[in-house]
Amino acid sequence: MFSRAAARLAIVIASFFLAVFPASALDKISFATNWRAQAEHGGFYQALVDGTYAEYGLDVTILQGGPQSNARLLLAAGRVDFSMGANLIQTFSAVQQNVPIVAVASLFQKDPIIFMSHPGEGFDRFEDLPKATAFVGNDNLVSVYQWLKQAYGFKEEKIKPYTFNSAPFIADRKSIQQGYLTSEPFEIQRQGGFAPNVFLLADYGYDSYSTTIEARKETVARNPDLVQRFVDASIIGWYHYLYGDDGAANAAIRKDNPEMSESQLAYSVAKLKERGVVDSGDSLTLGIGAMTDAR
């Protein structure tokens, strides 16, 4: 939890940066997220609306993603300064392909990726899931699902495309569907009228960081101070979002994504806290945003 001592330290640091970086000297940067505005991006919006980015000398523009956008490609092409990564498998793939991108922080200690199944249909245990028809999106097919194939024997012939519409899963009681711990179960209950079985892959050995901040290697090399300020301010934003007043940040999220409901935001924040998605593991000793070589 964000202690009083840590809060006082954050205020002192922020006050220093406010004195050093007057409004006229703010560095303009752009940050591309990997999906439409939601609670899973809340700490970044919090740092924007409560002035933390400005206090760190930054004028930040958040560019929300969606099904037709690719934040990593925008970053690699130099069209944005930072991007949000989904998991480390994608980061490792970028290294393997000599894409000059590096993850500089991880705001989620647990990847909130899940699979859901219908209760009482023979898929109530994780070990039953490989037998089911699986609705999986393209991004997860080339990342998380490859791990599932190796670790648990999932088969690609069982896959049907997930197009971010849960109606096919709701209709097919013998199927499973990917989702986010903080999002899809809420929608299934609302649309389908039942509470699905929820399997958080982090509970079954999928030990990836998630919601990373990615930067081009040249940016890290040429302007490490800029990178450090963006990381530090984002971390403070996440502390404030989880343990402070998130009202203004949620209003900004809903402004960017009018389809996002207040009830969905509340559900998502509750799940982030309940399952320690942001604040657990390495963050308990090293602070939110931590990544370790050992892990």
Q: What do we call the CATH topology of the largest domain?
A: D-Maltodextrin-Binding Protein, domain 2
Please summarize the sheet with the most strands: 5 strands, mixed
Shape: globular
Report the top-level CATH class of the largest domain. Answer: Alpha Beta
Tell me the number of helical segments per DSSP (H or I, 4 or more residues long): 14
N-to-C series of helices and strands = HEHHEHEHEEEHHEHEHEEHHHHH
CATH H level of the largest domain: which superfamily? Periplasmic binding protein-like II
Alpha-beta classification: alpha/beta
Taking strands numbered 1, 2, ... along the chain, how are they ordered across the largest sheet?
2-1-3-10-4
The domain tally reads: 2
CA(first)-CA(last) distance: 22 Å
Q: Which percent range fits the helix content?
A: 40-55%
Which strand-content bin applies to the residues?
Answer: 15-25%
Poorly predicted runs: 1-8
What would you say the CATH architecture of the largest domain is? 3-Layer(aba) Sandwich
The rounded Rg comes to 19 Å
Number of strands: 10
How would you portray this structure in words?
The chain is an alpha/beta fold and 295 residues long. 42% of the residues lie in helices and 19% in strands. The chain is built from 14 helices and ten strands. It has a five-stranded mixed beta sheet. Helix 2 crosses helix 11 and helix 2 crosses helix 12. The chain is globular, with a radius of gyration of 19 Å. The N terminus is likely disordered.
